[in-house]
Amino acid sequence: MTVSTTSIVRVRRADRHLGRRLLRSPWAVAAAVWLVGLVLASLTAPLWLPYGPLEQDLTAVLQGPSAAHLLGTDELGRDIFSRLLTAAAPTLLIALLTPIVAVLVTVPVTLWASRRPRVESVANRVSEIVLSLPGTVIILAVIAAIGTNMPAVMILFGLLLFGAMYRIFFGQAKSLHTQLFVEAAAVDGVRPMIASLRHVLPNMSTTVIVQFVLLFGAAIGLQAGLAFIGLGPQPPEPTWGGMIQAASRFIFQQPWMMVPTGGVLALTIIAANTLADTLAGGVSTPPPLITLRRRKRPETLTTTGAVAPVPAEDRELVVEDLVLGVDDGPALVTGVNLHVRPGTVMGLVGESGCGKSVTSYAMLGLLAPGLSVRSGRIGWGALDLARADEKAMQRVRGHEIAFISQEPTRALDPMFTVGTQLTAAIKRLRKVGGAEAKTIAAQLLNDVGILDVPRVLKSYPHQISGGMAQRVAISLALAGRPSLLIADEPTTALDVTVQAEILALLRGLVAERGMSIILVTHDLGVVADLCDEVAVMYAGQIVETGSVRDVLLRPEHPYTMALLAADPHAAVNLPGTTHLASIPGQVPAPAQWPSGCRFAERCRFAKPECAASIPLEPRSVGIGEVRCIRHEEVRGRQDEWRVPVPIGGAL
Prior knowledge:
Blueprint: E1 2-11, H1 16-24, H2 26-43, H3 45-48, H4 80-95, H5 97-113, H6 117-132, H7 135-146, H8 150-160, H9 162-177, H10 180-187, H11 192-228, H12 240-249, H13 258-280, E2 290-297, E3 301-302, E4 305-306, E5 317-326, E6 331-340, E7 345-349, H14 356-363, E8 371-380, E9 383-384, H15 390-396, E10 401-404, H16 408-411, H17 418-430, H18 434-447, H19 453-458, H20 466-478, E11 484-488, H21 496-513, E12 516-521, H22 524-530, E13 533-538, E14 541-547, H23 548-553, H24 558-565, H25 568-571, E15 617-618, E16 625-626, H26 631-634
Parallel strand pairs: 7-12, 7-13, 10-11, 11-12
Antiparallel strand pairs: 1-2, 3-4, 5-6, 5-8, 8-9, 13-14, 15-16
Helix pairs in contact: 2-4, 2-13, 5-6, 5-8, 5-9, 5-11, 6-9, 7-8, 9-11, 10-11, 11-12, 11-13, 12-13, 17-18, 18-20
GO molecular function, one term: ATP hydrolysis activity
Protein name: Oligopeptide/dipeptide ABC transporter, ATP-binding protein
Organism: uncultured Microbacterium sp
């Protein structure tokens, strides 16, 4: 079954810490009191003002402040205080239309464009066109056509601000979409737009709020300017701009008229900018949390057939002749073959730049923009993950295949507590209610060895240790009860003691739940401790496969031998070892791969015939394959990597 978002049912108030931040600033408090007070006083003015805004007294024309008229009177004897208050609410409320329209139009387009290159290209062109338009001329032309309809003018002003607002929001949204916690949401099967709403938009909220308040002040100024030149609401309706224009005509007869009219307008715009400045200082805790309610739809078809869950007995991963490459560029992975059976642990090892991580991302359909599957198959039951559409992948991610990042603190969203993130994933993946999700969340944290579960549930990611964060990340991965877990260097950033605990935890998961694991790692000690089978990658190719015992104790490829010779865990048990071996040179870039053996330039056993293309051949001992024409001849000679012999020497 597929699910879709039908509506946003709840947007919580800003976090109480944001309120405390505003309260700690006397200027922000004064600005908020001024704005709210103006609106309330204006809306209730007919109930308590002694004079109406249109009431004239020709015997009290152009008077200064007095007990009868607190701010004096205008050229027709009308009370200035009454007119200022009466005009306040319409001015402020109509001014809100501009930022509301600007934000409602710009934010969704920005979130969409920041994750879709084609939409980004179109949105960039549209924003450039809007920025090039003469906004003042367009506004004046619209007023000439439809009259002084201020709500329509404010809406038009908001639309004309799209180009500038898009430029402000896009860079931040683009950066946030590259964060690991957003990628982790995609791994869990969250729809792209929902991931943007839940993880990207809250992190942009400070910028959005600041721009909203600034545009509010600009809209007030625009209304006043239009009224001043006679293009606002017409007399005798009171407007701040119209009152300033009248005061300017009598500046020599009664200069006081300019003080209250200009002062109220200036103070209101200053108040809006003060709030924006306070908010621009940032917030130290999460902004509003968006929760989404989903409803089920009838099962739909994808490019690979019905999006039905893969039966448990068929949940084995088969990668066949996988080729990954850059669009219009070189290949990054060529001819990769892997077979991960249910209940087994496959280790994927090799140096950085060999293609391990990008291969694991391809299994989840999460290749970076510009990368694609050129050929090959990633079989998961009857489903080909290399060709599956987004709906099919959302059904697989989190539910059947989960992912653990090597940096758990970056994979967890810093804006939400552990409990919020874990219960949200459980509700989405298991379709349970909030109370049951909280119970399951506590049980998952207990299963991964966290003792103080209530405290951890209430904590933010920065408030827990790296080892505990990794356990939380594993809990998130288990939220959907997956059959396959892809772990990308899950112990790299942890100390030795915590590494051992995490490895023991993963072993327990395999034993208790019958899960299979693909472990991407550099650490051969971890492979020996946890894996059943291992595949060694070099320069985008699989160079050796087999059982852990065969590959680590009886390696047949020189690259595997070199890795073992450089491993401190293996060197400790070798008699006469005085130093660790090193592999000269580095992994060649994809565009520089040789046509023959890609390891030949760094290999001590290389021969001229290694310049020809070399296929995978069956191992001499055990089950598996090796990509070396001399594997039978050099088998068992890994100790020679510790002898300082020139590269290409005839050993």
